[in-house]
Amino acid sequence: MGFAGFPNGRLRFTPIPDLFFSELLGQIDDLAELKLTLHCFWRLHNKRGRYRYLSEEELQQDGPLMRALKRPGQNPQHVLQEALERAVWRGTLLKLEVEVDGMPQTWYFLNTEQGRRAVADIREGALAPGTIARSAEPRPVPEARPNIFVLYENNIGLLQPIIAEELREAAATYPEAWIEEAFRIAAERNVRNWRYVRAILERWAREGRDDEAPSGRAPTDRAAETRRRFLEELD
């Protein structure tokens, strides 16, 4: 069932800094990280008190967030952990390891002036004696996503989980230069769908690219004609 739309009347809003749209949004290349980031803006805006943070346990028990992070064949807890690592590595969230009455916890703050000041205060012992900030761990560098994902989102649209595995297989099967060229051709011809790109790659795998003929010969007029007819067939 689709979204019914926003109702009439007075609605509550969550403020998001303009820098999110002008700088950060273009850097985020993972859908789960994007969902998590927006969710944290909302949850932290509705927090009260001097130190506003979200614990890892809170996030794991957050029904709307965990439903949003569902991916076929993947554990939502693992998707959440990966999204958190990406957001911390990118600098959107600040991660603080603490012990509360001897029990380890992980807290996340927005990387704002208020969030940075809160982390510094807690490290200096601003909270109750039973809460101790642990030594900071180095931020993990998340595994690079296949470039094909970025090409897909830039040329076709928002990446859906159902297509992600097929894109991974294509990235492992075809040279990166082929994939970039196939997306470029699709964009030039304004045929923005994965089936079209995949058909180009499959054809090249069978017959060779026009500029990379199987025999190693330089491209010929006949090869160019073959390419032209092939693209017409795909229309």
Summarize the structure.
With 235 residues, the chain is an alpha+beta fold.
Overall description:
The structure is a single chain. With 235 residues, the chain is an alpha+beta fold. It has two domains: 18-133, Arc Repressor Mutant, subunit A (Orthogonal Bundle), CATH 1.10.10.10; 147-234, Arc Repressor Mutant, subunit A (Orthogonal Bundle), CATH 1.10.10. The chain contains eleven helices and four strands; from the N terminus they run ααβαααββαβααααα. The chain has helices at 18-24, 31-45, 56-60, 63-68, 76-90, 113-123, 147-155, 161-173, 176-188, 194-207, 221-234; strands spanning 54-55, 93-100, 103-110, 131-133. The protein has a four-stranded antiparallel sheet with strand order 1-3-2-4, with helices on both faces. 18% of the residues are buried.
Summarize this structure as a short list of keywords or feature phrases.
235 residues, alpha+beta, Arc Repressor Mutant, subunit A, four-stranded antiparallel sheet, 4 strands, 52% helix, 9% strand, elongated
Stated plainly, the CATH topology of the largest domain is called: Arc Repressor Mutant, subunit A
Task: Count all strands and give the number.
Answer: 4
**Which structural class should the secondary elements be placed in?**
alpha+beta
Terminal CA distance: 32 Å
- Summed up, the domain count is 2
- Any idea what the radius of gyration is? 24 Å
What low-confidence regions span 5 or more consecutive residues with pLDDT below 50? 213-223
- Given this structure, which CATH class of the largest domain is correct? Mainly Alpha
Mean pLDDT: 82
Global morphology:
elongated
Largest sheet features: 4 strands, antiparallel
Spatial strand order of the main sheet: 1-3-2-4
Please identify, by name, the CATH architecture of the largest domain. Answer: Orthogonal Bundle
Q: What series of H and E elements makes up the topology? A: HHEHHHEEHEHHHHH
Q: Which bin fits the share of residues in helices? A: 40-55%
Provide a count of the helices. Answer: 11
Which percent range describes the beta-strand content? 5-15%
